[in-house]
Amino acid sequence: MFHALSIAQFDVDTTFQLIRRAEALRAMPRHETRALLAGDIVATLFYEPSTRTRLSFEAAVYRLGGQVVSAENARENSSSKKGESLADVFRVVGCYADAIVIRHHRAEELDAAAPFSPVPVINAGAGSGEHPTQALLDAYTIWRELGRLNDLTVAVLGDLKYGRTVHSLLRLLAKMEGIRIRLFHPEPLGLPPELAAEMRDSGIPIEIAEDLEDAVRGADIVYQTRIQAERLQAEHEMCATDDYAIRRSHLAVLPEHARILHPLPRVGEIDPAIDPDDRAAYFRQAENGLYMRMALLDHMLRGELG
């Protein structure tokens, strides 16, 4: 059984098939999409807070004609509070649903428990590990905005140590051709050593920028992230964020074709005055998540790709 736990499971061909399926579902009349998963039930289990991921997954199920059973704040409001193992949760919830979408605070626990589920499991964000569906919708957004996923200079800013969206996106971009990565981050919040080693082994050119203006200058994609304050583990990781915030002045060195992405929520990393600029693509990015998650659910429950 296929469980979508890591972006490593998605090769270039599958990524583009999901993009094409997302585009097809986007254009399909509502009465047609609602027939695709009619009769199916998807369980959404969120052990950590979520707005976009949870609501877009649940909206995707409804748009496809399925139904949702949901546990929000499952860390406190489920039998997890009593000590139930995640493996047992999957065994039980898999009796009630045709697929499980889960956000969990421990990546290693999710990976170990998934094989016990009798139905497909989708990782909707696992601690500071990965967020594979975010990477897929990020790739979809880049493709929609620029028309390609190759020959790109991508500036990645912010918390690269705990930012799971960055971990999955970099692993996906490493599979594309002609990718150049530029990093800018607080000193204690660089890439985890194992991911840095993966990037070096992939042969992708990686540059460390000295300041934010150098980081975004001439970039095709700027991928901004927030500092994951809830995950910081040491006092030395606390840092001022002003030097990492995109201001209107930075647009002067950003090409007109470039796009600014952010997985959201933002907490000061992008000046709202930038929002009206065509290069600000983060709210379109959030919308794209609905269609990419529809495509993934359609694929995992019906085996359909475009």
Automatic annotation (TrEMBL):
InterPro entries with a match to the protein in the record: Asp/Orn_carbamoyltranf_P-bd, Asp/Orn_carbamoylTrfase, Asp/Orn_carbamoylTrfase_sf, Asp_carbamoyltransf, Asp_carbamoyltransf_Asp/Orn-bd
This protein's record includes keyword Hydrolase: no
Residue stretches making up the Aspartate/ornithine carbamoyltransferase Asp/Orn-binding domain: 151-299
Record field: catalytic activity: carbamoyl phosphate + L-aspartate = N-carbamoyl-L-aspartate + phosphate + H(+)
PROSITE patterns cross-referenced by the UniProt entry: CARBAMOYLTRANSFERASE
Listed EC numbers: 2.1.3.2
Pathway: Pyrimidine metabolism; UMP biosynthesis via de novo pathway; (S)-dihydroorotate from bicarbonate: step 2/3
GO molecular function term, any single one: amino acid binding
Keywords noted in UniProt: Pyrimidine biosynthesis, Transferase
Domain Aspartate/ornithine carbamoyltransferase carbamoyl-P binding positions: 3-143
Biological-process GO terms, alphabetical: 'de novo' pyrimidine nucleobase biosynthetic process; 'de novo' UMP biosynthetic process; amino acid metabolic process
Entry's family note: Belongs to the aspartate/ornithine carbamoyltransferase superfamily. ATCase family.
Stated role: Catalyzes the condensation of carbamoyl phosphate and aspartate to form carbamoyl aspartate and inorganic phosphate, the committed step in the de novo pyrimidine nucleotide biosynthesis pathway.
Stated name of the protein: Aspartate carbamoyltransferase
Species the sequence originates in: Alicyclobacillus hesperidum
Gene: pyrB
